[in-house]
Write a sequence for this structure.
């Protein structure tokens, strides 16, 4: 990595608590909060102190391990009962990103055959640490695979924050920009502000600037004009859940960009780890879409901007149909073409 610049990290495990970069306070304040019990973790996820599919998953994993470590004087059966209840509680914090359930299930399954409560507690912590370490390597690999699709001097548009602070490190959609810096490839990023809660304006610009990546901020409604006048070469986004046919849920506004990419005949890429795939769902219509508090729309930083009592619709995600996606970039390679077949193949290989 280039000296004097750094790639920020949002989740740190500190043996008995989580030290979390409070993403709600960025970019004006860089504040770290300590999560010391399961309720702290649930609150941090629902209030978006931590957000982004892989980061939610690994925070919940540490949260479950931390909760289990606090159980006292339980036999193995009661331990599993309590663990399953806590798993359900954490999984209920946000519904769309499948990484949350994936990480929690990975922990619960890992200790199914534990022979003692102490062994189970140790194993849970190790597994959460392992998920974080794997996610960093997976994101690096996604970055390498994504970079092969870009040319020197390309201008690339993104939405929301699918960056380092949304994962263990590097990010998914933003990973190629960090690796490009290392390799001396020049890429220019255009970040869409991402209303209602401005992950693009507050987070993507902040983290790319920490690492000296060339980034320009636009509002969401400037996308078509920017593609046309700045010569955007490609769009790259992250994902919260990808179904068996390649349909992809991501931050609200992603679908708009996919339609624009088609209209302008530029590639539309989704970058995501295998932990974001949900092959149990046949299509994107089955993905639960989180609807959030109306205040996210009617207020900006506590300031009311819409008439009191106005009716509000606030879906946090939309689903981009597979036919609008040029390629899905994973740690195992780039999927292009018949997603149903390729995804089936990918998960068949995984279970061999
Ligand atoms: O509501 P958020 O901020 O959690 O939404 C996040 C996104 O939509 C990201 O693009 C997605 O989780 C991928 S993060 C690598």
């Amino acid at each position: 990595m280039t000296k004097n610049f750094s790639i920020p990290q949002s989740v740190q495990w500190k043996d008995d608590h989580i030290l979390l970069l409070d993403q709600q306070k960025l970019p004006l304040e860089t504040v770290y909060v300590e999560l010391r019990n399961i309720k702290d973790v649930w609150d941090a996820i629902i209030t978006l102190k931590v957000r982004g599919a892989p980061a939610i998953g690994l925070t919940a994993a540490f949260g479950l391990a931390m909760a289990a470590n606090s159980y006292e004087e339980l036999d193995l059966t009661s331990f599993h009962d309590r663990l399953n209840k806590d798993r359900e509680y954490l999984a209920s914090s946000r519904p769309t990103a499948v990484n949350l359930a994936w990480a929690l299930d990975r922990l619960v399954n890992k200790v199914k055959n534990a022979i003692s409560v102490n062994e189970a507690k140790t194993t849970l912590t190790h597994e959460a640490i392992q998920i974080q370490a794997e996610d960093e390597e997976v994101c690096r690999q996604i970055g390498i695979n994504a970079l092969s699709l870009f040319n020197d001097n390309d201008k690339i548009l993104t939405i929301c924050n699918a960056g380092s602070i949304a994962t263990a490190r590097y990010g998914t959609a933003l990973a190629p920009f960090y690796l490009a810096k290392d390799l001396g490839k020049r890429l220019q990023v255009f970040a869409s502000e991402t209303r209602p809660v401005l992950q693009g304006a507050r987070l993507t610009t902040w983290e790319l600037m920490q690492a000296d990546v060339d980034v320009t901020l636009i509002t969401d409604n400037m996308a078509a004009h920017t593609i046309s006048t700045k010569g955007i070469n490609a769009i790259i986004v992250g994902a919260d859940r990808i179904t068996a046919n390649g349909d992809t849920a991501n931050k609200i506004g992603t679908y708009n960009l996919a339609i624009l990419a088609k209209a302008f005949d530029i590639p539309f890429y989704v970058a995501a780890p295998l932990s974001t795939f949900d092959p149990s769902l046949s299509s994107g219509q089955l993905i639960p879409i989180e609807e959030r508090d109306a205040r996210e729309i009617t207020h900006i930083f506590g300031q009311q901007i819409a008439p009191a009592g106005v009716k509000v619709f606030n879906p946090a995600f939309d689903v981009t149909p597979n036919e609008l996606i040029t390629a899905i970039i994973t740690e195992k390679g780039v999927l292009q073409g018949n997603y149903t077949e390729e995804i089936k193949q990918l998960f068949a290989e995984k279970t061999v």
